[in-house]
Amino acid sequence: MSQGGWYHGRMLFNQCSDLVGLLQTFAPVFSTRVWPYAQALLLGAILAPGKRTVSAILRVLGLSGLVHFQNYHRVLNRAQWSTLGAAQRLFQALVQAFAPRGPLVFGLDETIERRWGRRIAARGIYRDAARSSKAVTNKTSGLRWLSVQLLVRVPWAHKIWGLPFLTALAPSARYYQTRGRQPQNLTDRAKQVILQVQRWAPKRVLIFVADSAYAVLELLAWCQRLHVTLIVPLRLDAALFAPAPKPRRGQPGRPRLKGRRLPTLAARLKSRQTRWQRLRVNWYGRGPTTVEVATGTAIWYHSGKVPVPIRWVLVRDPLGQFETRALLSTDLSQSAQTIVELFTLRWQVEVTFEETRAHLGIETQRQWNPKAIQRATPVLLGLFSVVTLMAHRLQQQTPGGLRPRACAWYAKGRPSFSDALAGVRAHLWQQGFWLSGQPTDSQKLRRDLLQHFADLLCYAQ
Questions:
Q1: Model-level pTM?
Q2: Backbone phi, then psi, for 233, in 5-degree steps?
Q3: Scanning 50, 61, 140, 231, which has the fewest C-beta atoms within 10 Å of its C-beta?
């Protein structure tokens, strides 16, 4: 073996390669004995097409004949390492590469991993957002994951991407009941992940955007105490009030929590006295779009709950092409345009979920061990960000950078994640071949590598 190479079974990778070396960021999370197996699984998960089972990863690495294959399974179901520690290192690498300064914007959303089986204790029955509509609600069996994604502009893609780095399992209520524990809802999980992110970036301005499931008074008040901004949809019939008047000197009783009742947003939408302002904003992938907005501040209050001061924004389309939306922000100083444009970035979270299913094999893993289940899906989601970091480094090193796959019938101007993944795979395979770097030298594939590729192509799905 040449000096500087990393060998595991039949495949040889150059450890000095920047892309393979980037994985060394996660080496301190593992013990010296476990790390070579974990590194092999990470590289194999990038290179493997189709399913991301451990068996598929071993095959793509040329380790299908390995006798002690159980050592790779033990990385997930037995070895001692922390997914939280790996998430922190991934978060720091993403911030350094894409957002070294300025506010950090995060997408907060849950996704359902469709899984069946009695041995999956955390499994529940949830609404399947991909298969449901306003007319029909479909439900599915699976695992619910709460994902935090860094929403940043990827320079070579010329657009905002959602980069996952922290994913937490949100089990069903039945899971807690069978263990005699108090159930944790999505709001409780959201508090945990938001607090964790703030501990990792205590000096940065943090902004979270989420859907209506997180428009909960307790969570909004908690974010304000934490000095974290949360932007979520607001119901049109929410009870809004003016700020509480200052108590008079010597006035008996407890101070008031709210002032007079204000008109609901539904009433403001119909009122002719509502002042609308036209703005040019980026709206859900449609590019710059002219919308009309009305905004103001109020106290959102419900009996028995904590009153929360908010800035509300009504957004409507003068052409009537999309439904009127109401948004709120816990930061009262934000402008209406900022709130709208930040909220529309949330769509990139859904795009990332779809990309991971299409290209990284989410929902194809088949672990039954509880520890392996809690590790496999967060790792695959985090792999989306790892591949993006690799492509970013490859973009900086390659003249001309990453280029989208071109064809005569489809003009593609910007690289997508599939192009980034293809570029990273091509670089890793070239490093694995250890071919001569001289352009005048004749380069031939070894017979075993040629047979290995033929086997992969014959069974590709």
A1: 0.90
A2: -70, 155
A3: 50
